[in-house]
Amino acid sequence: MSMVLYHVVHVPWQSPEDVKELLWRRHVYNNAVISLKEIFRQELQQAEAAGKGLEAMKEEEDAELNRLIAENDRINREKAEARARKEEEEWKNTQREILNEIDEALQKQHQVAKEATAEVRDAISRSRDFVNEENLEAKILEALEHPKVYDFAIDRLGKKYYDPAPVKYQEGVPTRQKGRLFDRTLGVPKASELEEDKHSEELSEASKI
């Protein structure tokens, strides 16, 4: 049984240009680290020379951190207050819009109720002339005393021409309408009307004498 006593790492092949670039970057990194160490060493020496040791520097760093935290808290508090004011203003606007919509809806309902009330009152006022069991006799007498005839013609001016003229009580056999019996040419007087006009003219002439 064979045992592996060592492991050989086979580095993948790289081009010479890449190797040079990586080597240059390694030197730059090492130089930067060395420079930072030297800067920190000089700062420590200056602090010790000024009577400030590591504890004093730590206290300054803590104070700086506390100052930054306080500044951050102040900024967060101001932003929170501004956000609260904005939300309150938006809520007031929303409430105003809701109240306006409610007011408009109430006004519409009031207008609808007003119109419905007017219609009901109008219907009640018109119902006074309706025929019912109580006023049936009175309505019959009223119809007999004031007859209405719907056999009439109308000219362009709205004047009605009755054929025959309405009578209070029907006498004899009622006239039956046949075809165009009651039709007449508007604007052309009938013979009876001509006779009446002639008779009225004779009376006027006699009165002048």
TrEMBL record:
Its main location: mitochondrion. Residues 44-119 form a coiled coil. The keyword Ribosomal protein applies. Residues 192-209 have a biased composition (Basic and acidic residues). It comes from the Eukaryota. Keywords: Coiled coil, Mitochondrion, Ribonucleoprotein, Ribosomal protein, Transit peptide. InterPro entries: Ribosomal_mS26. Residues 187-209 are annotated as: Disordered. One of its GO terms (cellular component) is mitochondrial small ribosomal subunit. Belongs to the mitochondrion-specific ribosomal protein mS26 family. This is Small ribosomal subunit protein mS26.
